[in-house]
Design a protein that fits this description.
The structure holds 2 protein chains of 2 kinds. By secondary structure, chain A is mainly α. Chain A is about 80% helix and about 0% strand. Classes of the chains: A mainly alpha, B alpha+beta.
Chain lengths: ~230, ~350
């Protein structure tokens, strides 16, 4: 048990003294997950709105596919993206392998179904009177779409926060696409896996504390947003 | 040449999903600046009719003309001339100010926005200092309904359609809604179409009240409706027995024994004392009852006296002077007198 306590003490020391290696992993994690959030929200919110708002042939099948992809394993996404961005792959020229944008691209694919599905559910759950009200007040086409998204804003934010939680905590993609390169693509999760394997508990625990703090923050945000949306 | 009505309906039909008719209106017209009330039981097609007139729904068959032109729901200018306040008004999840300003913002009419919003909030009895920055969930039912009304009034529509605007509001809100609507009509000659179960309130805003029953406009709602059964008498009259055993006679035969008879409130005469026999009295029906309610009819300024005839309620329209001379109040025993020939059939 003693080495665990020692690890915790050392972890706090690493965090308080601003250990560069530790903060590099934190920075890479935040950068990759922020980029993936921008991508997934930019694509996912409009797609989720279309899926939730309109009726079209095959809607149920599309919805079933999106819902199935919610459980997409990170290593499968990693495998596919690796195949595309590796030097022999169709996107090889973009040189995304072992880069933060590469991790972000794969994370975007991972969390896109979450954003689409939860946004669609949010839009489907809107009050049936909303459309008639907006039309009665003179709103048209795009104005109705924007006002509907705004009405569902808290639920859409829940989708974003849920997606962020998934992106920040995944390890498979960061390992396969990022390559866990120290100072460059090493994220919190890959660093924890590596340091634990080496028996270096202190850095693992320090990064674990940061990850847990992020998880608590995300969870607190979710709780606040859920309260506001009801 | 007579003026083109604002609305004209030709052979309008609207079906339920099972194909049954919810609405069937062969012919109906609404003049510009009219204030029309609609009453009728739930499920009778009132809301659907209002949504069609508000250009929120299309009929399955038939044509609706607005201002002489066939209704086209892709015509933005036409759609923006009409607005509707839903039965349970929905407020956007924003502040009161944002809710009221929304209609002008989507029209890109942002000049003097704050002043217009404040003025409209005053109209519906909501002081802007107190209410403008409140959020949608910080309002009572009556306040929310008035915010919803303000958001319609501010766009100064040609037609204001309201579905049960006072169904879930307190009495003060009902009065404030009436005042705001009447002020709006006086200033802008807005055409008003309102459905309500509250006939007394409706009479304070509408000059004509129609009854919608089983998808049809069956006539003016001010008519008393008297259900059957009607049974033939040997003297050629048709008799209905009232719940307390008194009887009522019709001179003309009903289509069937269960037919509904209509009786114009102006055809009913009231007397405090029972006339001596039928000598010298041309009316066949003399029925004992009790006054239950007195109200004023907005457009005619006459008094509507609701009278309970042993379980059947009828309304009599009398002048204010007659009401004063009779000294009637709720609870006053009264005799209701009308001719057997006054009854018509629906």
């Amino acid at each position: 048990m003693e080495y665990i306590f020692e690890g915790i003490v050392r972890a706090i020391e690493l965090l308080l003294t601003g250990n560069e290696e530790t903060y590099s992993a934190v920075f890479v994690t935040l950068k990759a997950s922020t980029m993936s959030m921008i991508g997934s929200l930019a694509l996912g919110i409009p797609c989720g709105f279309l899926l939730g708002y309109f009726d079209f042939p095959g809607k149920k099948q599309v919805r079933a596919l999106v819902d199935t992809l919610l459980a997409l394993p990170t290593v499968v996404v990693g495998l596919f993206v690796y195949a595309f961005v590796s030097y022999r792959g169709p996107l090889g020229e973009m040189q995304l392998l072992f880069t933060i944008p590469g991790i972000a691209l794969a994370q975007t694919i991972l969390v896109l179904p979450i954003v689409i599905s939860l946004t669609a559910t949010a839009v489907e759950s809107l009050d049936k009177r909303l459309r008639s009200t907006l039309m009665a007040l003179g709103a048209r086409g795009k104005q109705i779409a924007i006002a509907s998204i705004l009405e569902a804003r808290y639920a859409v934010m829940i989708a974003a926060v849920t997606a962020y939680g998934r992106a920040v905590s995944e390890v498979g993609i960061s390992m396969m696409i990022g390559g866990n390169i120290k100072w460059h693509t090493r994220t919190i999760t890959t660093a924890i896996a590596l340091e634990t394997g080496k028996g270096e508990f202190s850095m693992g625990i320090a990064l674990g504390i940061v990850l847990l703090t992020l998880a608590f923050t995300v969870n607190a945000l979710l709780t606040i947003l859920k309260k506001r949306s009801t | 040449m007579s003026e083109t009505p604002l609305y004209r309906i030709n052979n309008l039909k609207y079906r339920y999903e099972n194909g049954r008719f919810l609405l069937h209106i062969p012919e109906f017209a609404i003049a510009r600046g009219a204030s029309i009330g609609i009453v009728g039981p739930n499920g009778g097609g009132k809301t659907t009719l209002l949504k069609i007139l508000a250009l929120l729904e299309d009929p399955d068959e038939g044509t609706v003309y607005f201002d002489g032109t066939k209704v086209d729901r892709t015509n933005d200018a036409m759609k923006r001339s009409v607005t509707m306040l839903l039965q349970e008004a929905y407020l956007l999840k924003r502040t009161v100010f944002e809710n009221v300003a929304y209609g002008l913002k989507v029209r890109n009419e942002k000049q003097g926005l704050t002043e217009k919003v404040h003025r409209t909030l005053h109209m519906v009895g909501l002081p802007p200092d107190e209410f403008a920055q409140r959020r949608w969930h910080q309002l009572s039912g009556g306040e929310a309904q008035r915010v919803a009304l303000a958001s319609r009034l501010i766009i100064n529509p040609r037609v204001l359609i309201m579905d049960e605007p006072t169904a879930s509001v307190d009495q003060r809100s009902a009065v404030l809604i009436k005042d705001a609507v009447n002020t709006m009509r006086e200033q802008f000659n807005t055409t008003l179409i309102v459905a309500s179960h509250d006939l007394i309130w409706l009479n304070t805003v509408a000059s004509q009240v129609f009854r919608v029953y089983e998808g049809r406009i069956t006539g003016l709602a001010s008519d008393n409706v008297i259900d059957g059964p009607w049974n033939p008498e040997s003297d050629g009259l048709w008799k209905k027995v009232l719940p307390d055993g008194q009887v009522m006679f019709s001179a003309t035969p009903p289509g069937d024994s269960a037919a509904k008879a209509l009786l114009n409130p102006s055809d009913i005469v009231l007397a405090k004392a029972q006339p001596d026999g039928r000598d010298g009295l041309s009316a066949r029906n003399i029925i004992r009852g009790t006054v239950t309610l007195l109200s004023e009819e907005n457009h005619s300024k006459k008094v509507l006296a609701t009278i309970d005839l042993g379980g059947l309620s009828v309304i009599s329209r009398i002048t204010r002077r007659a009401a004063e001379s009779l000294h009637i109040l709720p609870g006053t025993p009264i005799f209701v007198i009308f001719k057997a020939s006054s009854l018509r059939w629906e």
